[in-house]
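Q: How would the structure tokens look for this protein?
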Amino acid sequence: MPAPTQKRPRPNSSGNRNAKNANHRNTNYRNKKNLYRKSRYYRARQKRIILAGIGILAVVLLTALILLFRSCGKGDSASTSSSSVKDDIVSMTTADKSAKKAVLPETPVSLTISVVGDCTLGTDESFDYDSGFTAYYDSYGKDYFLQNVKSIFSADDLTIANMEGTLTESTEREEKQFAFKAPPAYAGILSSGSVEAVNTANNHSHDYGEQSFTDTMAALDQEGIVHFGYDETAVMDIKGVKVGLVGIYELNDHLERTQQLKDNIAKVKAEGANLVIVIFHWGNEKETVPDDNQMTLGRLAIDEGADLVCGHHPHVLQGIETYKGKNIVYSLGNFCFGGNSSPSDMDTMIFQQTFTISKDGVKADNVTNIIPCSISSDYGYNNYQPTPAEGDEAERITQKIQERSSWIPSASQS
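A: Here is the predicted structure in token form.
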């Protein structure tokens, strides 16, 4: 509060009286000032000033610490912009430590994903060696098997396959009709062919017991191949976009896998996934139309936030459904398949989809590319070398996929 203006007393007979009055006014002002300093308002105002000062000091110290850490880690504190420091401060004070919010790119990013079906990189011990997968590996090496599709896989941003079998030296074979295994070194077939990720949730992942599954994971890790399936999910950072991968084994439990599906999609989204791909091992062998369980789970995956759903196990091609603007590829068939030297149906495909991701999310443009293939580069028998089809053969396989897609009941009919 400003002090009252004091008038200079006039030099006349009333000067003493004016001086007395001035002293009285000063005394009143001091009394009011002391009362004001004792008031609740004054104390609250002082408290706010002190707290504001502490807050400013805390921000200054926090900024200084960030600059110090950056200079220690990168050796160039001067390159840290004020906006990035501000972002760091906000993230440090408001981030949810239990989940990572998806950070969408400011500039649109394009990702091309390729997905293929069953890859059995080995054989059953009862199969004939001369016509089996192992003989080809021993004769031609790891690069042989995917050499005809490697250029396609190398050009995309992510290739996903179904790893159906074990990579192990275990001899503890499960009691089943077919049990597949190969030495751990066979994981190099995938890495040399530019396959970056594999689903492991299928009915041959434990053919030689739990140890064989553990050995397979170790062999894949050795080659730098991402694996996912069952309750193991993965989130890959590709060109700044986080891609979440979920693998579900449906065969024994069918719709009882519903909660696992929901939980795993939620898990990768909580880990920051911008794009979610769900892979199912499901359906019935040799059936060309998906069953009710496939359709229910595939559509549920889309409802829960998946951007693409692909499946396998029937060993034949099934159709493709577009549900709510997103694709469900019900069966991709076999691919690099050591499970049969002369299967009745050698048609397969590479399903590709190119996604555009921006700050607004995944663009709903549905850019797909279906590449018809054979599981063999020779006609009439399986030489374990998947190869793109050409000419009339490519047209025939494409028409087969289109026809089988037309057989899928729409969501309103099922």
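The chain has ten helices and 17 strands.

The chain has two domains: 14-94, 109-406.

Upvote if useful.
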